[in-house]
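Is this the right way to post structure tokens for a design question? Let me know if I should format differently. Anyway, here goes:
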């Protein structure tokens, strides 16, 4: 898994590090389901940084979509 959290999209280093920690934690939980996929996670602008539950929900949705796509192969 690769992380692309640019300073251009998330200005404060504290926020970038928070996002990275949340992504890594979420990935560790879902890693056995994802199999051997190579994944790059990119943060977009206007990310709801203050709402951690929204970030986790969004990550869970994306992981679920990847699991579904991986099972079809």
């Amino acid at each position: 898994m690769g992380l692309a959290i640019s300073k251009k999209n998330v200005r404060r280093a504290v926020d970038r590090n928070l996002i990275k920690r949340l992504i890594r934690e979420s990935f560790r939980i879902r890693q056995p389901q994802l199999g051997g996929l190579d994944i790059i996670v990119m943060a977009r602008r206007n990310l709801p940084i203050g709402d951690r539950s929204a970030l986790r929900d969004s990550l869970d949705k994306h992981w679920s979509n990847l699991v579904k796509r991986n099972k079809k192969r």
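Format looks fine. Someone answered above. Worth noting: The CA atoms of residues 34 and 42 lie 18 Å apart. The chain has one domain: 2-72.
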